[in-house]
Amino acid sequence: MNEKDCMMLQYLEEEQSLTKAAERLYITQPALTYRIQQLEKELGVPIIVKYAKGTRLTPEGKYLVTYAKQTLLAMNKMKDYITSMRGEIKGVLRLGVASNFGLYKLPPLLKKFKDLYPDVQFNVTSALSSEILDLLHQEEVHLGVIRGEYHWPDARYHLHDEPIYLISKDPLDLERLPELPHIHFGEPKVRAMSHSQFPFSETIQAWWHERYQAPPTITMRVDAYETCKAMVKQGLGYSIVPGVFVTPQDELHTVDLVRLSGEPIRRHTWMLYRETSLELAIVDRFVQFMKAEHAAI
């Protein structure tokens, strides 16, 4: 099995579809099917089973996927350390970043780092913070940037925090909030967040229960904060969003969320990495770059 075979097996597990796996490999479905058949012939075992809605791995196929992931991880580490042995700032930096950070903060940072170190290439995965944490645990990324409070047993650095706003088109009577139409952001349904401790939604619920006996009157459920803001701008209700989404140009009324104790509710953004990964020159330099950039904020 070569590196491409390992990637093929990983994509088959993730997609459970020959068509989608072939698309990710940039080959045709017949070419993918042929390579699977060749691998099955070489190993003498079936790898996949086809059914009406896609494919699934056989027990032998599942074992091969585990082997393939370990092989890809080992190959990536080998490439990283060989590149780093001369102390040069070059090679591929694998980053996992929370979606909102990837949209609003990351692009100019990568541009600036690339200008400083033109031989660096980036492999960026943008996803939910819980998914980025999984990538870190699996060592699929060198460094992660997450939003919120998650347990991580190794190195972390606080990049910044932001207020949480209740936003509305016009000022509201907060005593009447349970009666007013609420535009609710619903977090996407993903696999169980085994590493998460304090999801954002739980923080908002705790703030609400401190103040109100009745639940909010939810009139809309949306899956993006920008959609929440667009609805609020039309006067269709109020919403609760992280401060990064709100600018003075939005011309919205904002109220900072504060606990009854007087403590403001903030959402924190963290850079997470392994201390051992600093042995790689490219990772060490990027960590120092990020610390310097955010110390200046």
From TrEMBL:
Q: Which residues form the HTH lysR-type domain?
A: 1-58
Q: Which SUPFAM superfamilies match?
A: Periplasmic binding protein-like II, Winged helix' DNA-binding domain
Family indicated by similarity:
Belongs to the LysR transcriptional regulatory family.
Q: What is this protein called?
A: LysR family transcriptional regulator
Q: Which UniProt keywords apply?
A: DNA-binding, Transcription, Transcription regulation
Organism superkingdom: Bacteria
Q: Which organism is it from?
A: Paenibacillus aestuarii
